[in-house]
Design a protein that fits this description.
single chain, mainly beta
């Protein structure tokens, strides 16, 4: 035990007894790998009273590999498919959840180095491209929702969500696409703040007004609403460029079109190790599922936190850093995870709180 947390590959047995795993060889996720024995040892229950989402007779599957940096998964319920981005390859891929699990490797290409995605409540895809936020209309055209703020270009939009009451679009703008050539282009000034202080913005669906709503995180990354839309959660990945930053997830109170009472809810430290949070989603019980990485085996993957006190209650270990995730499938009970070069999925005994 470390600070009350179970070490990697420890889990509850069938009678609530913790069984201690020994060192295992690297797991084979390839197409010819032998079946995984149930229960999957890489789905770890830390708090059995609060993490009840583990399914004992299912396993983590790798659905695709071959990306350079996989990001921004979003589920389209109407079409029953998943879209995600491969930023350095300047493309978006699509996974069709049918009997064959067909994958279109060039669903959109080029994509202006697209990152995060979501679908609005009319089924239209909204994408954070390197320089702008766009919406793909039903007739095939693209509408630019935001490409500047206060008369200056955006740093580089990252993740995006839509509020059902007013259709407003909320997105983060940390600027990674304007810092390194690998994921975009360097800004002319070469700063880690390409054009603005890194911030979170809201786009008014009726007027198109773009307004900054938060700038406390060093580099705001993943964003999600609580199930009742009373809270907003924002990952802070600022440690990538600011030594004084902390690996935390911020919580804000949401009242109409305003955020207030910013405070760190989740600390990503696990014992003496801490990786930065990237993307996140929320389930119907309010639990916060965070894609995390840059630490190594036993940490990288998805970590699940309780909404009341921000304590870690569960974990899904992956062999790669997990950039982002979303719930999907016919029952919204399948967790899709974009992790570095690959797309993974696992069924869970909960559902995504929102449409993607």
């Amino acid at each position: 035990m470390t600070n009350g947390l179970r070490l990697p590959h420890q889990d509850e047995g069938t009678h609530g007894v913790i069984r201690r795993g020994t060192h295992r060889p690297a797991r084979d996720f390839g197409p010819d790998a032998p079946p995984q024995r149930y229960p999957d040892p890489d789905i770890i229950v830390i708090d059995p009273k609060r993490f009840r989402a583990k399914v004992g007779n299912t396993a983590i599957k790798r659905l695709y590999t071959g990306c350079l940096w996989a990001e921004g998964p979003a589920w389209n319920a109407q079409g029953q498919y998943l879209v995600w981005s491969d930023i350095p390859n300047n493309r978006q891929l699509r996974y069709l959840e049918d009997g064959a699990g067909y994958i279109s490797e060039d669903f959109r290409k080029p994509t202006n180095e697209a990152n995060g995605n979501t679908f609005d409540f009319q089924g239209r895809q909204i994408t954070c491209e390197r320089t702008r936020v766009v919406r793909f209309e039903h007739n095939g055209t693209a509408t630019v929702l935001a490409d500047q703020a206060n008369g200056k270009p955006l740093n580089g939009p990252n993740d995006v969500v839509v509020h059902p009451n007013d259709g407003s679009i909320w997105f983060t703008d940390p600027g990674y696409g304007a810092i390194v050539l690998y994921e975009g282009q360097r800004s002319p000034n070469g700063s880690v703040q390409p054009y603005h202080k890194e911030s979170v913005y809201r786009v008014d669906a009726r007027t198109g007004e773009i307004r900054k709503v938060a700038d406390e995180p060093f580099k705001p990354n993943g964003i999600a609403f609580s199930p009742d839309y009373s809270k907003v959660y924002i990952c802070d990945s600022g440690i990538t460029h600011y030594p004084q930053a902390r690996n935390v997830v911020w919580q804000y109170d949401l009242d109409g079109d305003k955020l207030s009472n910013p405070r760190p809810l989740i600390d990503m430290a696990m014992g003496d190790r801490s990786g930065f949070p990237d993307g996140l989603r929320v389930d119907t019980e309010g639990n916060i599922w965070v894609g995390a990485g840059w630490v190594g085996e036993g940490y990288d993957g998805v970590q699940v936190f309780a909404p009341d006190d921000g304590q870690r209650i569960g974990q899904i270990c992956l062999p790669e850093c997990c950039a982002n995730l979303c719930f999907g499938g016919k029952k919204r009970n399948r967790l899709f995870m974009t992790a570095s070069q690959s797309l993974y999925a696992v069924y869970v005994e909960t559902q995504g709180a929102h449409n993607c």
